[in-house]
Design the sequence.
């Protein structure tokens, strides 16, 4: 066995080992029981339930509840993305998965994987994103969105060529939407990464950290 191959095996083994440790790490900011909530937190939870029709029992909302003034403004952005996005549901979910993969956030990925399938995103495309590969056989709108989001996340900017192509296809509202989707779901992903928010019971992680 060559030294290079041995080194690659060692790196991969260490990566998987660290990932396994992270999966079993304690949830730093678990849901609060009502008797532990402040009046402001109870108010935020009640407003959340009124807007969404469900209890505030899962991340990222349970993490955000530590600063209750954040909960409703952040939820309103989520409801916009869900119900009034300038992009199609398929492209909206695609952009969300790109952000989840960038930050290796399995909760976000798992939550939006089924929604992406229902919206018509190919499972082959999702598998490629999960692996860190450029997907093959993308439709034109998928390819434009992928390039736009990848440049934004990895280069911290968008080239003129990519910008003009996305603008021609999606319009100004669409490119602002794509940008805010990456920013919004990056915000939620790093919040949950910090809190070590766990996956729902029984869910298996689809993403592993990329080697540094």
Sequence:
């Amino acid at each position: 066995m060559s030294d290079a191959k041995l080194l690659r095996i060692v790196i991969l083994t260490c990566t998987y080992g660290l990932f396994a440790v992270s999966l079993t790490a304690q949830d730093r900011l678990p849901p609060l029981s009502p008797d532990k909530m402040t009046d402001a937190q109870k108010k935020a939870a009640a407003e959340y339930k009124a807007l969404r029709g469900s209890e505030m029992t899962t991340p990222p909302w349970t993490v955000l509840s530590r600063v209750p003034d954040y909960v409703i403004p952040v939820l309103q952005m989520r409801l916009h993305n869900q119900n009034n996005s300038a992009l199609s549901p398929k492209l909206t979910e695609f952009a969300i998965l790109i952000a989840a993969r960038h930050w290796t956030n399995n909760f976000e990925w798992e939550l939006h994987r089924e929604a992406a399938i229902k919206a018509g995103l190919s499972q082959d495309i999702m598998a490629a994103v999960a692996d860190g590969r450029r997907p093959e056989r993308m439709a034109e709108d998928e390819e434009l969105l992928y390039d736009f989001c990848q440049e934004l996340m990895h280069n911290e900017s968008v080239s003129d060529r990519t910008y003009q192509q996305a603008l021609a296809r999606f319009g100004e509202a669409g490119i602002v939407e794509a940008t805010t989707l990456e920013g919004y779901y990056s915000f939620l992903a790093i919040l949950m990464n910090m809190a070590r928010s766990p996956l729902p019971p029984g869910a298996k992680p689809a993403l592993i950290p990329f080697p540094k």
